[in-house]
Amino acid sequence: MPESIDKNNQMKYLLIGICMCTVILFISSCKKSSSGRTIDSNSLTGIWELKKVGTSWVPNVPGVAGKGNRLKFTATTYQLYTEGVLVKSGTYQTEKDSTVEQNVCLIFKPGEYGQRISYSDSTNFKIFFQLTKDTLSFQTGCYAVDGGRNDVYERVNDDN
Hints:
Elements: H1 2-29, H2 41-44, E1 46-55, E2 70-73, E3 77-82, E4 85-96, H3 100-104, E5 115-119, E6 127-132, E7 135-140, E8 149-156
Antiparallel strand pairs: 1-2, 1-8, 2-3, 3-4, 4-5, 5-6, 6-7, 7-8
């Protein structure tokens, strides 16, 4: 009789081992879903008007909407207008970058702000962006040291 108990234990351990291997294979074969996607620079192409600015100190800076503060993108170049006057221009590049939380000191949903933009006259801070339909949002600076900033633009259809 001791032999039958030993065989039952062996079968039990074998079955447990097979189940564990199946679970491990299942978990390792699952790929993490990524809501972020690489933005083609052509998606940025167009004219964007500043609608909202938020900083570490002032979450919604008043008086920025409708003042002629615009960004104009082609596939490789940009122009920045302040109150209708061209103040900066040059080239830019976009790339995937998953370090937004470490750089701006905020927590985001997975996939948000997973890319950054680099301008030819780049600043010391990384500038992360999120494109959703006709809204383009930028995050830069560290909010924890009162250096954070969020700019929100909306696509405009005219060429003024």
